[in-house]
Amino acid sequence: MPKVTFKNWNKTVECPPDTNLRKLALQHGIPLYNGVSGVLNCRGLGLCGTCCVEVIPEEKVGPKQYMEVLRFFQIKGNFRLACQAEVRGDIEVTKREGLYGTGKEPVKG
Ligand code: FES
């Protein structure tokens, strides 16, 4: 089973292949959202972009969905929308600062 390490929170969990990353995080008490986006988010529809996380290695999650391609065409790095990402292998997940979680520094867990 794939292992997912949420680096900000120093927590590693296992999940079946193809598990939705957002659902996995929320099941394990990982707060994926920064600030007001904890309340004001699209609840996993891929519309708001606030569930954005850095995933390493990115190839261990499923291919980018249409909404992610639109969201990230200008953003560099291994960022993914957690609500659109399916876990396919061992990954490390980091939430960064900013409303969308694409800032330079990781948030403190
Ligand atoms: S929860 Fe809104 S884009 Fe993922």
Account of the protein in words:
Helix content is 13%, strand content 22%. It is of the alpha+beta class. It starts with a strand and ends in a 15-residue tail after the last strand. The chain contains two helices and seven strands; from the N terminus they run βββαβαβββ. The chain has a single domain (3-94), classed as Beta-grasp domain (Ubiquitin-like (UB roll)), CATH 3.10.20. The model has no long low-confidence stretch (mean pLDDT 93). The strands form two sheets. The chain has a five-stranded mixed β-sheet with strand order 2-1-7-4-5, with no helix packed on it. Strands 3-6 form a two-stranded antiparallel sheet. It has helices at residues 21-27, 66-72; strands at residues 3-6, 11-14, 19-20, 52-56, 79-81, 86-87, 91-94. 28% of the residues are buried. Bound molecules: FE2/S2 (inorganic) cluster. Residues 41-42, 44-51, 81, 83 line the site of FE2/S2 (inorganic) cluster. The site of FE2/S2 (inorganic) cluster has 12 residues, from loops.
Descriptive key words:
109 residues; alpha+beta; Ubiquitin-like (UB roll); two-stranded antiparallel ribbon; binds FE2/S2 (inorganic) cluster
Short description:
This protein is of the alpha+beta class and 109 residues long. It has one domain: Beta-grasp domain (Ubiquitin-like (UB roll)), CATH 3.10.20.30.
Question: Secondary-structure blueprint of this entry?
Answer:
Elements: E1 3-6, E2 11-14, E3 19-20, H1 21-27, E4 52-56, H2 66-72, E5 79-81, E6 86-87, E7 91-94
Parallel strand pairs: 1-7
Antiparallel strand pairs: 1-2, 3-6, 4-5, 4-7
The structure holds FE2/S2 (inorganic) cluster.
FE2/S2 (inorganic) cluster is lined by residues 41-42, 44-51, 81, 83.
